[in-house]
Amino acid sequence: MTTMRFVLPGGERVPGIDVAQMRAVDRSMIEDFHIELAQMMENAGRNLADLARSLFSPQSATVLAGPGGNGGGGLVAARHLHNRGIAVTVTLASRHVAPVTAHQLDIVERLGVEVRDEPSPASVIIDALIGYGLSGDPGGRFAELIDWANATSAPVLALDTPSGLDLTAGTAATPCVQADATMTLALPKVGLGRAANVGALYLADISVPPALFAAMGLEVPVIFRSGSVVAVRADDMS
Questions:
Q1: What value does the mean pLDDT take over residues 60-79?
Q2: I want to staple 175 with a disulfide (CB 3.0 to 4.6 A). Which of 25, 46, 81, 146 is the partner?
Q3: What is the rounded CA–CA span in Å between residue 167 and residue 225?
Q4: Which domains does the chain have, with CATH numbers?
Q5: Cα–Cα distance measured from residue 176 to residue 172, given in angstroms and rounded to the nearest whole number
Q6: What is the pLDDT of residue 111?
């Protein structure tokens, strides 16, 4: 188990977790507390849209969405940005998506959000391609979209992690998104404190109960007392 910690704006320290621990959080949310993936996805995507607006005040946004839960969160963000009057397009890494992600895709298509084969230049790029389930170097369409994001002049906001980053080791695959900001979920992942391509780091609430962290033996302060997204940084003393 890692000992890396992160610091909130008020100076409180929060533990970093690795990928295995985050899988345990997700599993316990569903099995023990009946907080379903779609609910977590909604919280993540809404917070991501709000952060994109507060950081970049975009007139337009391009969402790069993978087939799993990370992509589903990006599609939720696309919906919220669209509902706030921002011109949004979506580009998928694959049309073969998980059921909960397919549901989010159906919603944005019903709203009239354009789903394009090729990404469009925009005021902000949302990276929702690959989450903590990274396995090896991204290839195929994932690699193409990562390379496109890195070549654009627009700021890139990553969901949970820059796609291609190992969230435990902090090592970048080839290719790996170079993010201007990253909004991670639940607790900071240790790899985010070890990597140079994360940009400004934020932590978002997906409604994890304090009892869950306590059951895992994690000492976690009340993180979201002042809002559902907070800035966070790696603790130099860890």
A1: 98
A2: 146
A3: 26
A4: 5-234 (3.40.50.10260)
A5: 6
A6: 98
CB 60 within 8 A of CB 34: no
The Cα 160–Cα 194 span in angstroms is 15
Q: How far apart are CA 23 and CA 146, in angstroms?
A: 24
CB 138 within 8 A of CB 164: yes
* Mean pLDDT score of the chain: 96
pTM above 0.90, yes or no: yes
Q: Please list, in sequence order, all residues whose beta carbon lies within 8 angstroms of the beta carbon of residue 23, skipping any fewer than 6 positions away.
A: 132
For residues 4 and 218, give the distance between their C-alpha atoms in angstroms, rounded to a whole number: 12
Q: Are 212 and 32 in contact (CB under 8 A)?
A: yes
Q: Distance between CA atoms of 183 and 161, rounded to whole angstroms?
A: 7
Backbone angles phi, psi at 167, to 5 degrees: -80, -10
Q: How far apart are CA 35 and CA 50, in angstroms?
A: 22
- Whether 228 and 203 have beta carbons less than 8 Å apart is answered as no
Confidence of residue 238 (pLDDT cuts 50, 70, 90): low
pLDDT attached to residue 237: 63
Q: Is the pLDDT of residue 236 over 80?
A: no
| Range 139-146 average pLDDT | 97
- Only one residue has tokens 């073969």, namely 96
DSSP 46-95: HHHHHHHHHHH--SEEEEEE-SSHHHHHHHHHHHHHHHTT-EEEEEES-S
**Bridge partners, 15 (sequence order):** 5
Task: Report CA dihedral (68, 132, 148, 87) to the nearest 10 degrees.
Answer: 60
Q: Which is more confident, 42 or 1?
A: 42
